[in-house]
């Protein structure tokens, strides 16, 4: 159950961060509401996952790492942001770090 809550927290955070870009500095009030609701929801879900005895280091690494990688891909695919070999390599390193933390936490 903790992993499902964490996945929902990540999805909410990614939605909020994407809306942050679309809000144009909070000029578009509808997107600004999505930002606030998304971040509050994300933190609430992350807190619930932690309450279920998920390790904070693993939870935060997965939450921030997957969120960062997803936002980079969304930016490149849908928001016209550049993707190059260095950025792609960075995403791979983030994912590798999250996997390593999960493997280390399993012991």
UniProtKB/TrEMBL annotation:
Keyword Membrane: yes
Topology versus the membrane: Multi-pass membrane protein
Main location (coarse class): membrane
Leader peptide range in chain numbering: none
GO molecular function annotation: transmembrane transporter activity
Entry keyword Kinase: no
Pfam family, one: Multi_Drug_Res
Keywords for the protein's UniProt record, in alphabetical order: Cell membrane, Membrane, Transmembrane, Transmembrane helix, Transport
Assigned GO CC terms: plasma membrane
Family statement: Belongs to the drug/metabolite transporter (DMT) superfamily. Small multidrug resistance (SMR) (TC 2.A.7.1) family.
Record-given protein name: QacE family quaternary ammonium compound efflux SMR transporter
The species this protein was found in: Sphaerisporangium album
């Amino acid at each position: 159950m903790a992993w499902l809550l964490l996945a929902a927290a990540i999805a909410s955070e990614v939605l909020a961060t994407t809306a942050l870009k679309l809000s144009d500095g909070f000029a578009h009030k509808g997107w600004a509401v999505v930002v606030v609701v998304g971040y509050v929801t994300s933190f609430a879900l992350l807190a619930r996952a932690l309450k279920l005895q998920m390790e904070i280091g693993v939870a935060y690494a997965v939450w921030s790492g997957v969120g960062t990688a997803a936002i980079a891909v969304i930016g490149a695919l849908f928001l016209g942001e550049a993707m190059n070999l260095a950025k792609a390599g960075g995403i791979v390193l983030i994912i590798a770090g999250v996997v390593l933390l999960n493997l280390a936490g399993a012991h």
